[in-house]
Amino acid sequence: RFPKVCALDVSTSRGLVRLGACAKGAGMIAPAMATMLCLVGTDALLGPEEASLLLRAAVDRTFNCISVDGEMSTNDCVFFLASGASGVALDDESRHQFAAALEALLLRLALMMVADGEGATKIMRVKVLAAETREQARSVARAIADSPLVKTAMHGADPNWGRIMGAAGACLAGRYLPQASLHLCGVQVVERGAARMVPTAEQAELKALMKQAEIDIELDLGLGSSSAEVYFADLGHEYISINAEYHT
Predict the structure, then answer these.
(1) How, if at all, do strands 226-233 and 66-67 pair?
(2) Catalytic positions, please?
(3) Rounded CA gap, 79 and 242, in Å?
(4) DSSP letter at 157?
(5) Dihedral sign, CA of 165, 125, 69, 30?
(6) Mean pLDDT across the stretch 218-235?
(7) Which alpha helices (H) appear in 23-182, and where do they start and end?
(8) Contact at 8 Å (CB) between 233 and 120?
(9) How far apart are CA 215 and CA 184, in angstroms?
């Protein structure tokens, strides 16, 4: 529905460098980048190994943390081209600055993909806190993001905490979560592993917040100190129409 392009000027301790990128993708967006293509360019002076390390770290926290429909395909790639035209080579300090800028650039493109997802009307950010490991946190976040029941609830502006906890529980089968808490748009709906009696005023506030184009979901598992975030799109009638009417 719209072009996905982005550019940044990056002031580093070694000098000014530039980053630019464009991408495509609107459906079958899931882990390992799925059906998406992205071209990133910079005028920084980077060798192949350095560029690969920077790109892999940034992709892991951006393109590999989004979902439109939880589906995958074989068509996925991110290219990173470094011309060296600026003459700026990175030292330890400037490399951290460049890495942060690269991640910010790719995250912006990743969110554009979610916003432009097939039939998407909303972007959700699910943040899982207090997991035992980062892998566990990401698995739970991914389970929530890929759940059709959660996606349709978000589309309908329904603060259905049971669907979110159900998706998390299925991912953590056999685990007891007595300290778990859940916030939707900043309003707590689960406390110490059980439903919270939300005051009437907060219910009205939450009802209005759920109609926004961006929704925050924060789940604290109460198990450890690791965390992860995943961004995902809602699932509505238009997605069904697009894919039901599509023929190969």
Answers:
(1) parallel
(2) 35
(3) 29
(4) T
(5) negative
(6) 96
(7) 48-60, 92-115, 134-146, 148-155, 161-171
(8) yes
(9) 8
Q: Could you tell me the two tokens for 47? A: 């060798």
Say if CB 121 and CB 213 are below 8 A apart: yes
Tokens at residue 132, please?
């035992």
Q: Please name the helix (run of DSSP H) or strand (run of DSSP E) that holds residue 128, with its range, or none.
A: strand 123-131
8-65: pLDDT as tens digits: 999 998 999 999 999 887 777 776 655 688 999 999 999 999 999 999 999 999 999 9
Q: Which amino acid is at 103?
A: E
How far is C-alpha 56 from the geometric centre of its chain's CA atoms? 16
Interval 145-195: pLDDT, tens: 999 999 999 999 999 999 999 999 999 988 889 999 999 999 999 999 999
The single-letter DSSP state of residue 212 is S
Contact between 73 and 32 under an 8 Å Cβ cutoff? The reply is no
Question: For the chain, which residues make up each domain, given as ranges?
Answer: 4-115, 123-244
Give the separation between CA 128 and CA 144, rounded to whole angstroms: 10
**Contact between 8 and 104 (Cβ < 8 Å):** yes
Give the residue among 5, 118, 21 at the shortest CA–CA distance from 71.
Answer: 118
Does domain 123-244 match CATH 3.10.20.340? yes
Which element (helix H / strand E) includes 202?
A: helix 200-209
Hey, what CATH class is 4-115 in?
alpha beta
pLDDT of residue 117: 83
